[in-house]
Automatic annotation (TrEMBL):
Belongs to the universal ribosomal protein uL3 family. The gene is rplC. This is 50S ribosomal protein L3. One of the primary rRNA binding proteins, it binds directly near the 3'-end of the 23S rRNA, where it nucleates assembly of the 50S subunit. Residues 121-130 have a biased composition (Basic residues). Part of the 50S ribosomal subunit. Forms a cluster with proteins L14 and L19. Keywords: Ribonucleoprotein, Ribosomal protein, RNA-binding, rRNA-binding. It holds the Pfam family Ribosomal_L3. The keyword Cell wall biogenesis/degradation does not apply. Residues 112-133 are annotated as: Disordered. The keyword Ribonucleoprotein applies. One of its GO terms (biological process) is translation. One of its GO terms (cellular component) is cytosolic large ribosomal subunit. GO terms for molecular function: rRNA binding; structural constituent of ribosome. It comes from Campylobacter curvus (strain 525.92).
Length: 192
């Protein structure tokens, strides 16, 4: 079973041995359509969206204006309506997927851990990558070459142990850290 969640932030358990935990808030969602494989089109509220495509989907599924984002999830529901959160009460391990924090355009020292060159004597090779070795053959940059470029903002999935689940408030507490910034939207999937 899969669910849409919002990252609240990190905290810790108060016990003899403190454990770092991440708090995730379940996003209220409506199941619009279900196929025979328990895959469903789910609508949830995210940010403001005002275009004809979303308006058409809202009209088709009889949704209010707040439900403006759609996703395909594996659900426990057998019929259209509110998303069923009861399987989370028996879950032990979750797979959590978020986009990692974006770090923009970075050089090779930060992005790949290159050591760089000497800092003195006019070497003009301090934090650069140096030669990329494409002089005669193959005469092009090989795929996968470690170079400067965009870093972060990629989908990252981690496996976390479920510490507790507050069904009344829709708060899921998982052991350890989760990628992404506070307020980011992601997915959780029950492993076992």
């Amino acid at each position: 079973m899969e669910y849409i969640v919002e990252k609240i932030g990190m905290s810790r358990t108060i016990s003899t041995q403190s454990t770092p935990v991440t708090l995730l808030k379940l996003v209220e969602a409506k199941v619009c359509e279900i196929d025979e494989n328990k895959r469903a089109i789910v609508a949830y509220a995210h940010t403001k969206a005002n275009n004809k495509t979303i308006a058409g989907q809202q009209k088709k599924y009889n949704l209010t204006a707040e439900f403006n984002k759609f996703a395909t999830l594996e659900v426990a529901n057998s019929e259209v309506g509110n998303l069923d959160f009861t399987p989370l009460s028996e879950a032990k391990i979750l797979k959590v997927s978020f986009n990692s924090k974006g770090r923009g355009y970075q050089g090779v020292v930060k992005r790949h851990g290159f050591s760089g060159g000497p800092k003195s004597h006019g070497s003009r090779f301090h934090r650069r990558h140096g030669s990329i070795g494409n002089c005669e053959w193959p005469g092009r940059v090989q795929p996968g070459m470690k170079m400067a470029g965009h870093m972060g903002n990629e989908k990252v999935t981690v496996k976390n142990e479920l510490v507790s689940f507050d069904a009344e408030n829709g708060i899921v507490v998982v052991k350890g850290c989760v990628p992404g910034h506070n307020g980011a939207m992601g997915r959780i999937r029950i492993v076992k």
